[in-house]
Write a structure and sequence with these properties.
alpha+beta; Immunoglobulin-like; 4-stranded antiparallel sheet; 3-stranded antiparallel sheet
């Protein structure tokens, strides 16, 4: 089965200067490119928009006035709109063939990497809460998680059968309530992903408020 590639427009975080360079690269790459049939004036408009933004950049560098910056922002918007228009034609006509897409000056989207079983959330800690019977739990977030599962142990933390489910949350902090005041509890957390349950964290301990 042939792999279908996806086009990456690639406009995020580009400076105005880099945007001009990108636009001109598309003009050069698409001129006389037999893989795409574009509207007759599109490349001319794209080249003109690059020249207009280039001139606006120079005006900002020389003067730096408010009106110069407003004009440059307008030229940026206009050039981006034309690049998006070009991307639509390229994506439609190149049929997901990576070589053809790259030949027009666009990059390819990276295929998403599957998230496997997650390592334990680091820096897990527990401390007395602000209200009676509360314990505050915090840990560092794990990329790729779908949900965190918290466990509690009010007995021997070395005995697996003493560990019970305490809560599930999508955030990397949680307050357990309704615990026995001044009683010592043990806690641990795991980050679950599409691959299943993640590895358990180190044990943290605290008395309830």
């Amino acid at each position: 089965m042939k792999k279908v590639e996806k086009l990456k427009v690639g406009l995020v975080s580009l400076t105005p200067t880099a945007l001009v360079e990108k636009g001109r690269k598309h003009v050069e790459s698409c001129t006389d490119n037999t893989d795409v049939t574009l509207p007759p004036t599109l490349l001319t408009e794209l080249g003109d928009a690059c020249d207009a933004l280039d001139a606006a950049n120079i005006a900002v560098e020389k003067n730096g006035g408010k009106q110069d910056r407003i004009r440059r922002a307008t030229r940026v918007t206009e050039l981006k709109a034309l690049i998006w228009l070009l991307a639509g034609h390229v994506e439609l006509q190149c049929g997901g063939i990576g070589e053809k897409i790259v030949g027009t000056g666009f990059d390819l989207r990276k295929a998403p990497q599957p998230v496997g079983v997650l390592e334990a959330p680091p820096n897990f800690r527990a401390e007395r809460g602000k209200q009676r019977g509360d314990v505050d739990l915090r840990w560092n977030a794990k990329r790729g998680r779908t949900i965190y599962t918290l466990q509690i142990n009010s007995g021997d933390p070395k005995l697996e059968e003493d560990w019970k489910w305490a809560a599930s949350t999508t955030r990397n902090f949680h307050t357990l309530t309704g615990l026995e005041t001044d009683k010592q509890y043990f806690f641990r957390v795991r980050a679950n992903s599409a691959a299943g349950a993640g590895k358990l964290s180190d044990v943290a301990t605290s008395k309830a408020a």
